[in-house]
Amino acid sequence: MSASTTSLSNLVSIQVTIYLGIPILITGIIGGILNIIVFLSLKTFRQNSCAFYLMIMSIVNIGNLITGLLSRIMISGFNMDWTQSTIFYCKFRPYCLQSCISISFTCMCLATINQFLATYSNPRWQRWSNIKIAHRLTIIFIILWLLHGIPFLIYYNRIKIFSTDQYTCVITNQIFQVYTTVIQTIGFYGFVLVIINTLFGLLAYRNVRNLTYRTISLVRRELDKQLTTIVLIQAVYNFIITIPYLIVNILTLNTTIMGFSITSSQLEFANILTLCIFYLNFSVSNNDLSFFCLFIFLCF
User: Fold this and answer.
1) CA 126 – CA 118 distance, rounded (Å)
2) Which residues contact 180 (CB under 8 A, 6 or more apart)?
3) Of the residues 3, 12, 105, 183, which has the maximum number of CB atoms within 10 A of its CB?
4) Cβ–Cβ < 8 Å for 228, 205
5) Is-contact 272 252, C-beta < 8 A?
6) Are the C-beta atoms of 210 and 121 separated by less than 8 Å?
7) CATH architecture of the region 3-299
């Protein structure tokens, strides 16, 4: 690939990062703050286990956007890589980012499963959908994901590139590199969580359609309908938004592709573009939740 074409590709990547990433960052943070305010201000939400999962998800989504997207905008858009200047941030950024992403996706799964249980006709299953269990499960998974991130603190290091006389922050263990790409990103984020969200979201939607035939209060019925709609829409969003990012990650595993000069630059651009789109998982989630939360807040 010619130098002019490569330069054009880099310029387009910078523009995409700035003009797509900044709106996603701003709207996502504002939406997350509104979610937290509404969830904490309405008693109906404070006592609902699904709403609790969604509130925790909104909190960590803000962490995802600040830790991941903000630094990505500074790195790719303004050539300000904070991970090169300090070993602390080189290790802290991936640790915090993977913890927040994992907690966010886990809360989404728990919220979807919770709505399936809450709308199930068998009271024995419904008893598993309560706020105390939600508190315990959330604490357990937060601790697990924080412990899971310890290898990120160990294997992320600053390496000096002698050709440019600059430092770069990379994983220094090849086995852990394969694990983060294949097992965690493609396997867990891509397939396991998408399947769980889609499956239980559809099952919860089926249960909601039968709520009219059950003797429950009107407030409970409407709340379950709205919350089930939220988790089902989020499941669809997660599937659509995550797939492009996973495809690019799968392509990067094939090192033979990098042997073609025409592919290397295009793959780098695709990685930046799909990464920005991937962060829509957290921005769109916060904005959609804000809409539904305000709607329910006005209704109740």
Assistant:
1) 5
2) 98, 171
3) 105
4) yes
5) no
6) yes
7) Up-down Bundle (1.20)
User: pLDDT per residue over 110-138, tens digit each?
Assistant: 999 998 888 887 778 888 888 999 999 99
Residue showing tokens 């508190």: 135
CB distance 45 to 38 below 8 Å: yes
pLDDT tens per residue, range 52-95? 998 899 899 999 999 988 988 888 888 888 888 888 889 999 99
CA distance 10 to 120: 52
Three-state SS for 2? coil
Q: Over the Cα atoms of the chain, what is R_g?
A: 21
For residues 121 and 256, what is the distance between their CA atoms, to the nearest angstrom? 53
171: left (phi over 0), alpha (psi -120 to 50) or beta: beta
| Residue 95 CA to its chain's centroid (Å) | 14
Identify the helix (H) or strand (E) that includes residue 34: helix 3-41
